[in-house]
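Standup notes
- DV: blocked on the single-chain target, sequence here:
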Amino acid sequence: MVRQPAADVHFPTAAPPAETDVLIVGAGPVGLSAAVELTARGVSVAVVDAATGATLVRAGAMGHSPRVVEHFRRWGVLQRIRTGWTFPPEWNRGIRLATSLTGHDLIPDGERRQPSGASLARPIRRPQTALQQAFLDHLGLHGVPVSGGWRVTGLDDTGDGVRTTVTADGQTRTIASRYVIGADGGSSTVRRLAGIERVGEHATERLFRLIVRHAPGALGAAPSGTNIVYNQRASGFLAAISPTEWRVYAGPYPLDVEPAADELLDIARSAFGVPDLELELASKTTYYQATRIAETFRKGRVLLAGDAAHVRTPGGNLGEGFGDVANLGWKLAAVLAGHGGEALLDSYDAERRPHNQRVADHALDSARRSRALLARIRADGVPDDADDSARARRRRGEIAELLGAEPRGEAIGVLFDERYDASGVVWYEPGQQETDQPWRAAVYTDDPRPGHRAPDAYVDPWGDTLYDRLGLDFGLLLSEPDAELAEAFTAAAAERGLGLAVVHLPEGPAREHYPEGAVLVRPDQHVAWRGRALPPGGAAAVLDHVLGVRAATVPAKGTTMSYFLDFTGPAELRTRGTVLIVPGRGESASGYVRLGSRLAADAYRVRVVPAPALDESDVEGSLDRFAAVLTEAVKGLGDEPVTPLVLLGADTGAATVASLVARSGPEVPWWPAAVVLAGLPGYAEHRTEGWEAELDGRTHCPAHRGVLGNDPTVVPGALAGPVPTRLLDGAYASKAEVPHLILTGDTDPYADRERLAQLAGILPTARLAVVRGAHHDVLNDLQHRSVAAEVVSFLEAVRAEQPLERVVQVEHSTW
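- DV (later): unblocked, structure below
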């Protein structure tokens, strides 16, 4: 006799260690898979959970998409999960649409799970407890401590680590770790203690996920294990979780209504189509059709994953959690190993949060459409299963037509299009972000461009796949022999301690997905860069960008940033010019990733220099010191910077640039061909009540707010003090014979519009562009793409030596 695997999971209850590299809070599938991912990368990990186990009747997700199965295979746990069935797998015969389990089929043969063509993996149905047991077994082989019954009660991010307080049975311990991952569910304690809020709509109704139990054999030897039912009483999934237990759905109900157990059991009987079936209510859990997403997935050394980061309408939530783990794991390991920068961890939020938001929006819209369809079906009635009249058959046919007109199953774009299209660690192709087709839930085409999931394919006739070949490492895919490029990446990877698999694709299925050039694939199976030739800076520049590392030291006195941030245009395009960006108060290099990438895509060489350190008692000395920084920045660009050389300043950076240009001349090595002044402040002081108020004055772009909030070099309150008067005097009195573009937002509370207009009038050549809706950080506000286009338009006029009319011109840029 075949033995049924155990349904419930028990966590070890030994005390957790006193210290570890990464503490994971939550022993659900996401938390345990994070431990598997990090352990495979040599990271010391410990897991704690307030519960001492998990039960099958309380388990959530059952169905796991091909993309999730790809992760299972990479983690080496797929076979353990396959053997973790809790009801006979042969009960799975596709997703059957019917009036009830014993009733009439509405779609012939149900929905069969055919290969999508986008993955070599097939979906699998296993309860969450089966996943947890497989992960626990795997972690046990590697000696990873998992401690159940330990509740987190305190969290202290000290800047160089986290001290987490946990309690169990009257005992209290403190765990020191370098990072903490909160994977502790929708009511996450870690999220609350870290002070991370959530955004999104609250639900106005609630629904129930029921587990009901019947006597063995009460429904026959092999019923259909996965069904969607439509009748006047029951609707939604009816799915087996064991030979005697099934998941059924009930609702919606008003938030304050608590239905009786007998009412819920009657709904379950209607789903089975057996009015007198003896049932026991084994479990009842509440869920909502709503979206709640954390404002950030990273705050200092605390990171969120899974339901702790995003809760939405049921359907694929667990898969998104595994996607979080795959994205975060290699990045955190790289930072802990010393070859990844802070920008790499910042990219976790920048990549995963927008993706989760659009999937959540689709899920909520899909749920509402399904509710409307059900209401339409019930309005005209669903015949009783016993009614076999011509009228009943005709009505079931009408229902089948309604269902047939709607898309069924998970949308292919949701399953596979987890593109990252606004990341600071992806080397995008020229114009890619502007020309990409919008994300659509029902559309997906394999796409080997940067930011997209790298297509999988067989690399030999014996069944080895590209993902198998890459494993946990970076991968360099070569469709044509290129020994020089392969050697360059191999050497650069070795210098950084990175594993790199070089895969040649001279022929076969994989070559069809990667027809030309070289492709660099990240450890999470996303494309990081591709090209036919190395860019300036070579393979080292590519890897440093992908790892969030920029390391050109500036030995200048009084600077607040210790490196230049560089962006170079596509190798195949001639560089049009050089732009030096000068940040302002409360800014660092991380705030200019989007603008730098955008200008570089237009073939400009971009370097972000340190923000000027200003001494109010010695403005002239401050300007002298910053002039030295500009000299170093220009020297570091090579033999000669590509002209025209343009200085672009923001806030006090703009005031510094304007003052320096006003008092200098063409003899200085950094003398510009043009100047861009963005967000030039006025003389007035602006006191704000707290960080959120300061952010409101800076920007209403959520991405830029996240960058400012997560960058430890950004000091809140930076805009509260006055700008040195002598610096502003020099800036506003400038009559420099250099073309100027003056950018300001029409909602900038720090701007002096009258003085800006006067400055534009006294400069020999100037253009004033007022950006509608932009706040003080005009370069990084919601209109950053069109602002960049405004800057490029100005630069092209300078390149072409086109005269600018001496007028004040007001331009309205829109998103």
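- Follow-up: The longest strand covers residues 171-182.
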